[in-house]
Amino acid sequence: MAAATHAAHAPHDTLRIKRAGLWLFFFSETILFGLLMSARFFLEGIEREHLDQALGVGITSILVTSSVTAYMAETAIEHDRRGEAMWWLLGTIALGFVFAFGVGYEWATAEFSRHEAFGTVFFTMTGVHAGHVLSGVGLLALVAIQLGRGRFSSKEHWPISGTIMYWHFVDIVWIFFYPTLYLV
Amino acid sequence: MGSYRIGWIMAVWLLVLIAVDFSIAQWVDHKQLRFSLLTIGTFAEAVPIAYYFMHISRVWRGEVH
Predict the structure, then answer these.
(1) Cβ atoms < 10 Å from Cβ of B20
(2) pTM of the predicted model, to two decimals?
(3) Distance (Å, rounded) from C-alpha A49 to C-alpha A52?
(4) Nearest by CB to A67, which of B26, B42, B53?
(5) Structural domain for A85, as ranges
(6) In chain B, domain spans
(7) What mean pLDDT, rounded, does chain A reach?
(8) So what's the ipTM on this one?
């Protein structure tokens, strides 16, 4: 009886362990990004450098919107709406690409060089973050392919949920980076 | 349908706060005040994402079915 009870609860417990593990990963990543922010404030204080403000607010709005579309994708699969989930996922991927293109444009038009203190932290912070964005796009594409092959349902969709949580984390990092680099 | 509504409400909330942050950066000249207001604005965006989008409470409460 006890074994049967344990077996019935095992998938649920496994999911909790996966979720806790993902949050531990986020914690370790937070240390990395937090140290990068510390370096920026140590080198520049709360002085603002000249950056393209319109581009900054534009790409920030795009990345935040992609978090909403990612959430909608997760909500759709929780309701067994695979087709809808696919469209939200594809929208999220497209917005991720637009954000990465915007960062690339900022790099190409920046009025400072990587040899300056601010340039060093700017290119490091945005580069490490853009790397996370592109890896997130890759992961979203993988789960979209699996979704297209008929995997996932309202009862079994952890790969989608985990990937989307990662996407939200990358979004939160930028929510801190944006004012740190553009607005302060 | 409640989940979808949360998504749309969050979209409006986040985009409004981005606009507020941008306005603070343009109009507030006092550096310390600007830094403080932007810090508050940043957490006002990040915390709801962690709670509503990343379901952080499921770490200690478990899954909701």
Answers:
(1) 16
(2) 0.91
(3) 10
(4) B53
(5) 2-183
(6) 2-61
(7) 92
(8) 0.91
